[in-house]
Amino acid sequence: MAGLYIHIPFCRKKCPYCSFVSYEGRLDIINEYVCCLIREAEIVTGKGIADGLTFDSVYFGGGTPSLLPAGAISKLLDSLSSLLPLSPFKDKEISFECNPESVRKSLLTELAGAGINRVSLGVQDLTEKGLAILGRVHSVSSAKEAARLIRDFGFENFSIDIIYCLPGQDISMLELTLEQAFSLEPVHISAYELSVEGGTRLYDMVRKGKVLLQSDESRLHLTRFLEALLEDRGIYQYEISNFAEPGRQCSHNINYWKCGQYLGIGCGAVSYLNGTRYFNTPSLYRYMTMVKQGHVPVTEEERLDGEARFREAFVMWLRMTRGADLAAIKSRFGLDPLNYYGDLVERMCAIGLMVIEDDKKRLRLSNRGRYIANYVLSQFV
Ligand code: SF4
User: Fold this and answer.
1) What residues have CB less than 8 Å from 255, skipping those under 6 apart?
2) Of the candidates 256, 271, 298, which is a domain's last residue?
3) Sequence-distant (≥ 6) Cβ neighbours of residue 221 within 8 angstroms
4) Are residues 243 and 323 in the same domain?
5) pLDDT tens, 253-288?
6) I want to staple 74 with a disulfide (CB 3.0 to 4.6 A). Which of 114, 119, 271, 280 is the partner?
7) pLDDT digits (tens, 9 = 90+) for 13-34
8) CB of residue 242 inside a 6 A radius of ligand 1
9) Average model confidence (pLDDT) for the chain?
10) Within this chain, do residues 124 and 42 fall inside the same structural domain, yes or no?
């Protein structure tokens, strides 16, 4: 299986914590950008870059895809279907990210008509205080209204994104967000701890002491509370930051965690094909110029040798709650993880950070290991 990712790098306003490739405003060129996406797909096809692949999932991410103007989504999907090897729509997961402030009936009508069957809504928090901390442009009531519209339009495969461990957030504030989130009836929740990335406004505020982050102890406390409450409501963890009702896991993202192949198109998009990672330029101007001139807009690439691919796949696979399928990794890379890492795995198991299961066929992080996943996984990189 392979995934197709389409990046829409436009936002109403840049959030202070955001390190994604996204540009505030610039909606004046969004139609031109859509033409560039189609042109990029033509170039990819012309150069045989997607030969031999079949795309079983499509993901519109951003940025804010819900800012796409009327007609653009159908035009894009029609063009991409004719240019790239997409499996039949009925067999495919097609996800579309929305932000509450740009969800409207006409958009949802177009999504449904274009065959989009999974909608992910970036609510991030469901208290006014939390939204103000995150610098979001939407309100709690607009997030609820957007969720209601999405459900009313029949999008059953409905996910929401939440950010927690906000400065000053306590259990009762998180609980309020989660209870309101459950009332939106999502079948999938992505819950990310707030992280501070270099180059963001949040980074500057933290450095200048204007924002005080949660301590490690508080983060652990909030994470345990969140995981327990989600499980109690039948939304089970399947990856460090992702939870779903049974059968509602995101197959596009599972492909990433299994280090499957994917093609990313758009400014700042990343592809992983035949062991090489390709990075499209993050500059909007350069992206559009390169594509208009008939060039693949890749400005950086990273070739991984067989051993590096094995190590990366092993680490990525461990992000999933079920852990790494050791036989599958061995047959794909010709290396046995237990032999390769030797006593490192034994030590991790001995101190309770990892668990070997199913007659040594599967290795996963323990609950304790998951809480310090960055440390544990860094040992295997
Ligand atoms: S809406 Fe999302 S992509 Fe856009 S600036 Fe905010 S966090 Fe970044």
Assistant:
1) 1, 2, 3, 56, 57, 262
2) 256
3) 171
4) no
5) 999 999 999 999 999 999 999 999 999 999 999 999
6) 114
7) 999 999 999 999 899 999 999 9
8) no
9) 96
10) yes
Task: Label residue 368 by pLDDT band (50, 70, 90).
Answer: very high
The phi, psi pair for 155, rounded to 5°, reads -80, 90
Which residues make beta-bridge pairs with 280? 298
Number of structural domains, the chain? 2
- Number of helical H runs and strand E runs in the chain: 16, 17
Domain boundary among 238, 256, 274: 256
Residue 135 CA, closest ligand 1 atom number: 6
Distance 232 CA to ligand 1 centre (A): 30
Read off the DSSP letter of residue 85.
Answer: -
Strands (E), the chain: 2-8, 10-11, 23-24, 55-62, 93-98, 118-124, 158-164, 188-193, 236-239, 242-244, 261-265, 270-273, 276-280, 298-303, 324-325, 354-357, 362-365
Task: Provide the pLDDT for residue 197.
Answer: 95
Check whether 90 has a pLDDT greater than 80.
no
- The alpha carbon of 158 and the centre of ligand 1 are apart by a number of angstroms equal to 19
Q: Is the shortest distance between the CB of 192 and ligand 1 below 6 Å?
A: no
User: Going by CA atoms, what residue is nearest to atom 8 of ligand 1?
Assistant: 18
Which residue among 17, 20, 67 is best mutated to probe the pocket of ligand 1, counting the most ligand atoms within 8 A of its Cβ?
20
- CA–CA–CA angle 88, 91, 93 (5° rounding): 105
Residue 149, classed as helix, strand or coil, is helix
105, 68 Cβ separation under 8 angstroms: no
CATH, residue 75 = 3.80.30.20
Q: Which CATH number is 355's domain given?
A: 1.10.10.920
pLDDT of residue 66: 97
What distance in Å separates the CA atoms of residue 50 and residue 71, rounded to the nearest whole number? Answer: 26
Can you give the residue range of the structural domain that contains 215?
2-256
Same domain, 247 and 347: no
Tens of pLDDT along 216-238? Answer: 999 999 999 999 999 999 999 99
Q: Tell which atom from ligand 1 comes closest to the C-alpha of 17.
A: 7
Q: Quick check: CB of 64 below 6 Å from ligand 1? A: yes
